Amino acid sequence: MFDMNLIQRGARLRRSPFFEATQRHGAKAYTVYNHMLFPICFDDLEAEYHHLLEHVTLWDVSVERQVEITGPDAFAFINMLTPRDLSKCAVGQGKYVVITADDGGIINDPVLLRLGANHFWLALADSDVLLWARGVALNSGLRVNITEPDVSPVQIQGPKAKEVVLALFGEPVTKLRYYWFLDTKLDGIPVVVTRTGWTGEVGYEVYLRDGSRGNDLWERIMDAGAPYHIRPTGPSDIRRIEAGILNWGADMTLENNVYEVGLERLVDEKKDASYIGRDALARIRKEGVRRKLAGIEIEGERIEFNTTKWPVAAGGKPVGRVTSAAWSPRLKKNIGYAMVPVAQAKPGTALQITLPGGAERKATVVDMPFVDPKKAIPKT
Amino acid sequence: MFDMNLIQRGARLRRSPFFEATQRHGAKAYTVYNHMLFPICFDDLEAEYHHLLEHVTLWDVSVERQVEITGPDAFAFINMLTPRDLSKCAVGQGKYVVITADDGGIINDPVLLRLGANHFWLALADSDVLLWARGVALNSGLRVNITEPDVSPVQIQGPKAKEVVLALFGEPVTKLRYYWFLDTKLDGIPVVVTRTGWTGEVGYEVYLRDGSRGNDLWERIMDAGAPYHIRPTGPSDIRRIEAGILNWGADMTLENNVYEVGLERLVDEKKDASYIGRDALARIRKEGVRRKLAGIEIEGERIEFNTTKWPVAAGGKPVGRVTSAAWSPRLKKNIGYAMVPVAQAKPGTALQITLPGGAERKATVVDMPFVDPKKAIPKT
Hints:
- The structure is a homodimer.
- Chain A is an alpha+beta fold.
- In chain A, 20% of the residues lie in helices and 30% in strands.
- Chain A has nine helices and 21 strands.
- Chain A has helices at 19-24, 45-54, 74-81, 129-138, 161-169, 171-174, 214-225, 237-242, 278-287, and strands spanning 29-33, 36-41, 57-60, 66-70, 94-96, 99-100, 106-108, 111-116, 119-123, 145-147, 152-157, 181-186, 189-194, 203-208, 231-232, 291-298, 311-314, 317-328, 333-341, 350-354, 360-366.
- In chain A, β6 (99-100) and β7 form a beta hairpin.
- The first copy, chain A, starts with 18 loop residues before the first helix and ends in a 14-residue tail after the last strand.
- At the A-B interface, β1, α4 and β18 of A face β1, α4 and β18 of B.
């Protein structure tokens, strides 16, 4: 059994409603994300990757904490937090969005769900958007309530995910378009089911709306998935890198803007409302960026998935850092991302990477995603 | 060697400037705090406690990330973030403060340092005050710059701490009053030295102002401390509970206010300026609170330091949760805190605690701090 004392000391770190289930099912390691314990593997990372590609996997992603925004001005408020034009987001629909600071920096990249005309959830990456939103609201003159609701998602990801959600929720859920959702119940457990995920595979998320029912929901999904060999796993970094999906905190932070990290599709330039960061983004768009996140292939033998911002050089001169990297078993290549000056971000550029311990590796800038986009699910 | 993969996957979690030093000196476990790895022990927790009581200890608390506030309106802005009257804080002085939300909730409980008339640092507990402050600033009309500077503290704590800082910094530092600081250099390394700490013992913090010099500063302190048997340790939860010191995220959160957790001394009722949460705190003060954080003694054998909000009952009825608890070797008692209704917060009240696994323990509400206040350093 994993020694929880290694990271858990006292009652500061929160536990997910699925924590006991993940312990029972043999979680081998946890990290910390949004002040909460996050199970990151139950087996070897490559074994989990293959299971995701061939079958179906269940992830405890309760750490995607929600910020809930309600009140008569909720729409106006949330539309002010992001460059996407949310007048195009229907009730029942979700969007992948960035939350931007006044300088255009990326505060977070949540999935937004519109549950009502003035009712929104943000499923967050690892930063306290609750504090940002409450700070912004203070002098905004808008009537909003901003809280962290009792909502905890799991992901069901892999080619058999559709069969599993069909068995659980019936036909309507299989008709969901990307980023749309259903508000429903499972044996009396209130849930929201979305067609979303962090893989590029077929996938769904089930947002539990009653934290006391974590064990029930987990076992119900495991039972429904048994004929399809469902297994609890951590999120697959290998698969998400293959798909060109970014990890906030590693591949992008508050120090970056969407134009540096290839997320310009999340800015609706013709949006008919002001939002935080609009002027800064317009200026950056006009002036251009100095650095970019580039896809890279790293030569040589299999690297361990554990980058610590390895140094990147070009022509012997330090130019940037690796932000994520992994060995892709099906591509039989080391792939990843590096933040480098624009001049070094062009496909074909030769780079040199320094691994921990000092070993040098040749690398080349390549186009993303690494796996045929027809196989990847676009974030819409 | 500790398997870093247990919590560190990819480049998301940040590393302290002292990370390599803590690895070299045998850190056995890390937790995550402000998105950064935090070494929490190098030895048995009781061995570290005894070393703190008898000698001197060095802690890597870089996770106390700073928010720096500058600009022509920096004083007006920071004075708006806290109920303490900062007109009473001189340049060169620090204060223990709470940052309050508009509903009076505690966002964080940093140590504030005033480096100039309009130059402040907040040394933070585990929440993104950078986002809160930037959100608040947006429509405030105040001209401020709010950033995370390259500043990383260590703590030097224990009865021999004064000898160590004397050897390092000379006479002036030994003349510091509680919560005052010196802006100085050590072998060219820029630092700020404060008379502060998280122990109730004599203690100092050294704020490194150049992250590239982490190794140098660490070894310089270890060398100066060698005659006094200095050892790297984690923060001692046993000692801080004895002193009645609270841990944000465990003993208090955004859901609590100062009146619930005994921090009313951090509200200057006659403060001559408005601040966020003022109206809410005035209302709470008038109406009274429904629950309070109470000191408790738990009967029976030594408990493990690892509370997970153990349930608390009174007369067989559930009334609250334990927020922190530890075995005090010198008191030979289990001590801690529980959040309970006001009626159950009176000294002498009998409580029942349910430990993990279901075992019941008798407990009694007692006065805090647990160790004679003459031995404890007041937070001023």
